[in-house]
Amino acid sequence: MRDLTLTLILLFFTSFNHVHPEDGLKEKPNVLFIIIDDLRPQLACYGADGVISPNIDQLAGEGVMFTRSYCQVPVCGASRASLLTGLRPTRERFTSFKSVADDDAPGITGLPKHFKEHGYHTISNGKVYHHYEKDGAGGWSETPWHPNGWVEAPWYPKGNWANYLKEENLILRDEFTYGHAYESSDVLDNAYFDGAIAEKTIADLQRMGEKEKSFFLVAGFRKPHLPFNAPKKYWDMYERSEIDLADNPFQPENVPEASLTYLWELNNYVGIPKDPPIPDSLARTLIHGYYACVSYVDAQVGKILAELDRLSLRENTIVLLIGDHGWHLGEHGLWSKFTNFEESLRSPMIVSAPGLTAGQASTGLVEFVDLYPTLCELCGLPDPEHLDGTSLVPLLEDPNSRWEEAAFSRSRDGASVKTDRYRYTEWTDDDGEMYARMLYDHQVDPGENKNIAELPESTQIVEELSEMLKDD
Q1: Which one of 242, 299, 370, 427 is at 20 to 30 Å from 434 when CA atoms are compared?
Q2: Quick check: 428 and 415 in contact, CB under 8 A?
């Protein structure tokens, strides 16, 4: 049955194919790839109460929403290096935000370059590779584009990397590198980076829609990454007093210290305590800012998708939307990524492709390394031999299909495996000796509030999951 379905899909796409008059290349389906920084499944379509995300929700209704999709590394640079090469992280590879794919995996053909080598016009807008000035060499048909003032990282002396608009934050930025952790300005969407990225992406769609060559167009939005800066109208969508705080702002029972990062990243900002806990009033303001940024980015996604429809490109364009990893909003007292907890590792994945399933959700355990082979199969491209992931086309055909038994992630010394029922993580030193571990039973403890790794009744499952980590 799957062979027949796949044949029909290929025939569908072939009906759009024709020979390029200049170079003889056959057209393939277009790809619009949207990457959203630090986006956890804080979306209405994922069941998040109170979050306003109508455009991403609509996209989910037009494709397959993966409810259990996991990044390989919960930090920007490493996550993007992994998913864009299709390689899993190791103890030495893709370890931090400083990770550069071309350095950690020399000679590996990244996803954009693979598409470029097979006739696609490839475009990078905004935050795609984390280190855009020195990564993904040869992968883009045009120089990667960023709004004025964009820089790679906060310690760079040039530019307003945090994209502050208010004078008070610009002054603090000059004095301390960081200003406040949030900002609301009564401005148009394009005053902040993500609005400008949406406008550039729309202009590219208009330009590429007139060309014969298929496009591989990536829009990398920076929000809801800190600082939580967004136009005032998106803050005004929410009543702060009605925003719920995390219901488990405490350390899990029996948790190892290795698992906790507390306020990493957040405590660099003005007005944030150096040590937990965060006062409730400040916590509610921070969550308000995160929600405002999600709604702001959602609006930019909506503009791009509306233009895709207006140009009649949707019928031959695959749309893929992901976050690069999750983020903690006070769960376990944490306000960051970098952890091996569910909030840090789980992030949205939505795929909408012509001729495939629409408006369904898949509970299959999927990983970001699966994206590279999935796009290759959908577009009729060969898989490079180095890929570690598995094409998700069977789940796009039938979201209820049986799928992989586990998803694997790493954060610093900790290797983690998620199965249907459990999440198990163990930390090892440079000699491979385990020095900490945790196990959560998601069937009875979905919030990961009680580490049961050391209980006698957990011995067998710990051994089994530890072996799975060794085999990964």
Answers
A1: 370
A2: yes
Report how far apart, in Å, the C-alpha atoms of 427 and of each of 171, 453, 459 are: 41, 13, 17
Per-domain residue ranges for the chain? 2-404, 413-472
C-alpha pair distances (Å), 440 with each of 12, 140, 443, 467: 44, 42, 9, 17
Q: What's CA 43's distance to the chain center, in Å?
A: 13
**pLDDT tens digits for range 346-383:** 999 999 999 998 999 999 999 999 999 999 999 999 99
For 413-472, give the CATH class.
alpha beta
CB 328, CB 305: distance < 8 Å: no
Tell me how far apart the alpha carbons of residues 309 and 331 are, in angstroms, rounded to a whole number.
39
**Which positions ≥6 away from 427 have C-beta within 8 Å?**
256, 258, 412, 413, 414, 415, 434, 435, 436, 437
What token pair was written down for 135? Answer: 């990564």
Question: Are the folds of 2-404 and 413-472 the same?
Answer: no
Looking up tokens 């299909």 gives 401
Q: Which CATH superfamily is domain 2-404 in?
A: Alkaline Phosphatase, subunit A (3.40.720.10)
Are 183 and 165 spatial neighbours (Cβ–Cβ below 8 Å)? yes
Dihedral sign computed on CA atoms, order 109, 115, 117, 121:
negative
Indicate the residue type of 56: I
Residues 6+ apart with CB under 8 A from 449: 248, 250, 252, 253
Residue 405, number of CB atoms within 10 A of its CB:
11
pLDDT (tens digit per residue) in 112-135: 999 999 999 999 999 999 877 777
Alpha carbon distance 167, 158 (integer Å):
17
- Give burial (CB, 10 Å; 0-12/13-18/19+) of 308: buried
Q: How far is CA 359 from the centre of its chain?
A: 21
Question: Which run of H or of E encompasses 360?
Answer: strand 360-362
Rounded to two decimals, the pTM is 0.93
Residue labelled with tokens 């502050």: 164
Which residues are catalytic, by number? 76, 130
**Would you say 345 and 70 are in contact if contact means Cβ atoms under 8 Å apart?**
yes
